[in-house]
Structure formats: C-alpha cells, structure tokens
Amino acid sequence: GIPLIDTNKTNVTFLYRGRADSMKLSGDFTSWAFKLKMKKLPDTDLFYLRLSFESDARLDYKFIANNKEVLDPLNKATAPSSYGERSELAMPDFTRAEELHATYVAPKGKLATLTHSSGILGYERTLYVYVPAGIDTNRLRLPVVFFQDGADYVNFTKAPQILDNMIASKAIPPVLAVFVVPPVEKTRNRITEYGMNDDYARYFVTELIPFIDKKYNTTRKPADRHVIGPSFGGLASLFIGLRYPDSISNVASQSGYLSFSDDSLFTLVPIRSPRPFRVYIDIGTYERNVDGAALGSPDGDFLGGNRRLSRMLNQRGYRYMYREFHDGHSWGRWRNELPFILRWFFSSGK
Fold first, then answer.
1. 131 CB contacts (<8 Å, ≥6 apart)?
2. What is the dihedral of CA 194, 198, 201, 203, to 10 degrees?
3. 313 backbone dihedrals φ, ψ, rounded to 5°
4. How many angstroms separate the CA atoms of 194 and 172, rounded?
5. Higher pLDDT among residues 292 and 191, named by residue
6. For residue 282, what is the DSSP state?
7. What percent of the chain has a predicted confidence (pLDDT) above 90?
8. Largest CA distance in the chain
9. Minimal CA–CA distance to 287: which of 24, 91, 1, 31?
C-alpha cells in the first residue's frame, strides 16, 4: 500500500505523482505547523519523502501541492477531522478496534434530537439521545454516558454504531447516551463553555442531568453516570467531575487540554481521591504542540500536561487509567479508543 512501509516496520516513503511547482507534507508529526519539502525525481512528476515512525503509530497527514492542501490520491485510508478528511498512515503494528468493523449485524438503537433550555446559561442547546434497541426503558433503568462535543462523537467516531455493536455483543450493558452539542455563536461556543466555566459545570449537573433523569428511566446513581470529551471537551469533563464528584463518578478525557491556563485544573484535584471517583486519560505522543497554536509554550504541550496530571493522580491515590499512543490530536485515534473507554467505564472493578 501507499505510503510505502519498509520491512523494518519503521521507515516510510510518501509518494505523490502529479504536476506541481512545489510539494510539501504536513501532519500530526509536524504539529500541522510545519511543512516538510518533498524531493522530486529528476525528469519525472514523482515527488517523495522518507521518514521514520514507531511501528505501532497511527497518524494523519496531507500533501500541500502549490500551497493547496490535498489528500493522498494513492491512499484510500482517511480519518475524520473538524477541518475535513485527512489521509491516514497506519503502521504495521497499529491495532484497529474490532468494534469499528463488526462482522455481525447489531440491532440499531434510536437517536432522538432534543432541545434543552438553560436558565443558568440563558440559552438553549441541541442534544442527541441514544436509546439502545430492544430495551423496555419502562422496566429497565439505564446508566448514562454523557459526551461533550456530542455531534462530533456521533459523526466522526460513529459512537451510536459502536454502542450498538458493544451492547449486542454484551461487551457493555445497555446504556443511555447523551451527546451534548455546544453552541456555535461568537459569544457562546465550546471555548466559552469548556474553559473551566463554573456556569457550564453548574448547568451540566443541576439542569441537564435532572432533565435527562426526568425524561428517561435512568439509574440516577453517581456511579452509573459517565462523562467523556476530547481536547477542550476533555478538560470540561474533568472540570465537571472534580467540581461535582458526588454527581458523576466516572470521567474520561481524550487528549484533554489539561495544560490550559498554566495547569489551572490541577488546583481542583483533592489531596485524597473521592470514592468511587475514577478518571481515564489518553494522549498521543505527537501532541507536543497541538495545531501549532502555541509553539514553544507549555500551554500548547498537551502531552506534558496529561503526564503531569497522571503523576498527580497516582501520588494522591486516585483510581485512574492512563494510556499513551504514538498518535496525534485526531478523531482517528479517539474513535479507535472509544470502545476501550466504554469497557473501562463498565468494568467489573467499578
């Protein structure tokens, strides 16, 4: 396949054939901030560049032909992003979650669209609520998983399909999933909500959770409530969990922006872990300078921030899971890791 991977499982040759005055390569491995110049074979239209990666790496990339980003036309593998599709490099030892390509046909749950108005925030938002197939919700009380950046989890990770597969295979019990969609206005959006916003956390716990509990037959136990988010949404999830551990007992952060505002989140971590509070964290080793937004700044070093919080959780006796991957800040990885998180949420060791 293309890119070409050597038998040593580490050396990779990127190839692009076509007319261009200049060809460059950018991706997770350049923090999308730098563009690597590709070489051209004399008297041909073939450009190439050789790089080396870990044998289990999974990375997004794009070519830049005459200053215009393009997908790799020779590589059919792509990964979703909020910036559009990107080409995907999967090294030989990378393992793709089986729930993403289940061989059996799982019954499909229902995805309802709701509108919820907040008195605290002063505006309304869209929610997508997943109810598993074949479940009598009048008789069975369901645990709940809340997703920050909910529309992206629906569209980019295909979370409802993953839930269908995992519930059908009994990997997890039937669950209710609430995909919380942030607004997209200038003064109210995911940045204003997710940046350790006290009002958003209070809305989440005192308005959103009671709304869901009233509308659906939920267990209403903190130990059966789970919240997960990516990037800024990972920060928001941890912030809510640390502020209200008596309401939500299980929190997952995927590539969380934990270095935000000089590690401000860390001041909320109690000396002793609330029981039965549990924290999941995953991060990519290529997340040293996310989106090239803060070159050389600790604030943009997501990997460093996640490692620092992991050490703190360990020192203070938290029940937590920390995982690093040779990967970038990508929905491709967050999608692949979601089945593991759901298993961890509902593991027998809760």
1. 109, 110, 112, 137, 176, 216
2. -110
3. -60, -40
4. 28
5. 191
6. E
7. 87
8. 73
9. 31
- The predicted-structure confidence for 106-156, as pLDDT tens digits, reads as follows 899 999 999 999 999 999 999 999 999 988 888 899 999 999 999 999 999
Question: What is the rounded distance in angstroms from the CA atom of residue 116 to the CA atom of residue 125?
Answer: 5
Distance CA 317, CA 297 (A): 30
- Is the pLDDT assigned to residue 293 strictly greater than 60? no
How far apart CA 310 and CA 304 sit, in angstroms, is 10
Taking the complete model, does pTM exceed 0.90, yes or no?
yes
Nearest to 336 by CA among 51, 60, 133: 60
Place of tokens 């005055």: 21
Q: Return the beta strands (E) in 243-309 as ranges.
A: 250-254, 278-284
- State the DSSP code for 106: P
Model pLDDT for residues 333-345, shown as the tens digit of each residue: 999 999 999 999 9
3-state secondary structure of 215: helix
How far is residue 13's CA from residue 30's CA, in Å, rounded to a whole number?
16
The residue length of the chain stands at: 350
Q: What is the dihedral of CA 320, 321, 327, 332, to 10 degrees?
A: -100
Residue range 66-76, pLDDT digits in tens: 999 999 999 99
Q: Are 125 and 190 in contact (CB under 8 A)?
A: no
**What's the rounded mean pLDDT across residues 25-35?**
93
Strand (E) or helix (H) holding 47: strand 46-52
Quickly state the pLDDT bin for 1 (edges 50, 70, 90): confident
Q: Which element (helix H / strand E) includes 60?
A: strand 58-65
Sign of CA dihedral 140, 277, 325, 305: positive
Q: Is the pLDDT of residue 292 over 80?
A: no
Question: Between helices 331-345 and 159-168, what is the axis angle to 10°?
Answer: 30
Contact (CB, 8 A) for 151 and 184: no
Beta strand pairing call for 144-147 and 58-65 = unpaired
Please choose, from the candidates 164, 161, 178, the residue with its C-alpha nearest in 3D space to the C-alpha of residue 216: 178
Backbone phi, psi, residue 126, to 5°? -95, 140
